């Protein structure tokens, strides 16, 4: 079943969202911004570039989705995560990000058609949605409100402080999302992005040593112990049952001890989040919650109008 009919109202509201929380920048995004701002083919060009890249390397899908999260959770969705060192890229959580080349390709292609109009921040947001649409088999997609401009600051220290870590407790992650104006329910839904992608042994080694985490299902625990001997930094799937499909299996996994990271497992064990985990085991519920939460995150502290800039090169601030 397609999710679009369930979220028409959400999409209409999203185009009118104005953030007024303390410390956040008031801004408005609109659906189809570039259709009336000098680049009507922008979205189709970007999506085509992303689709091609994912077909060439399926790992690009979770990579692009992760770039979006790591961008928006710091200074808002301003493409600050794309800036080359010294920048947010130097923060430990960002050192395993990948998919930047896909953003570069999309930017280059859109610049050929309408130079100086499309922001890197909007490319990041559109690439994340396309990644979800592809890996869900078209079952989860939405119209991305656009009109963002690119930020002028990129700080490794800010990224390190803001990005949730795999060993964080629910309380810590909740606080980090709340700082961006996002609720506990939205945090849980967005955690469902772990239905695709990989994690290095270092991200969950705390559950294996010095004491084996008793909440890990025994078969998974034994498998991880073999995969991750001391000093190893191999990778494994975040979703151990359907690792390449964007679906609700991640939440069902949490209920039976198959969450990989501490931050995953605690969503089930913490009373403030376990109810949301249960609700999201239903695919249609998860899809609708994820879409609305992605739109909300995509509106966090965005720069619009004359704020910020439209970068010529996503990796560098304009001179």
Radius of gyration: 19 Å
Strand order of the largest sheet: 1-2
Mean pLDDT: 93
Which class do the helix and strand fractions yield? mainly alpha
The parts where pLDDT drops under 50 for at least 5 residues are 1-26
H/E element sequence: HEHHHHEHHHEHHEHHHH
Largest sheet: 2 strands, antiparallel
Percentage of residues assigned to helices: 40-55%
Tally of contiguous helical segments: 14
What is the strand content?
under 5%
Describe the protein's topology:
Layout: H1 8-14, E1 30-31, H2 42-56, H3 60-75, H4 100-113, H5 120-135, E2 145-146, H6 156-162, H7 170-178, H8 184-191, E3 198-200, H9 201-204, H10 218-227, E4 235-237, H11 249-255, H12 262-269, H13 274-279, H14 283-298
Antiparallel strand pairs: 1-2, 3-4
Helix pairs in contact: 2-4, 2-5, 3-5, 3-6, 8-14
Summarize the model shown.
The chain is mainly alpha-helical and 319 residues long. Helix content is 45%, strand content 3%.
Description:
This protein is mainly alpha-helical and 319 residues long. The chain has helices at 8-14, 42-56, 60-75, 100-113, 120-135, 156-162, 170-178, 184-191, 201-204, 218-227, 249-255, 262-269, 274-279, 283-298, and strands spanning 30-31, 145-146, 198-200, 235-237. The chain is built from 14 helices and four strands. The strands form two sheets. It has a two-stranded antiparallel sheet. A two-stranded antiparallel sheet has the order 3-4. Helix 2 packs antiparallel against helix 4 (100-113) and helix 8 (184-191) crosses helix 14. Its cofactor is heme b; Ca(2+). Its main location: secreted.
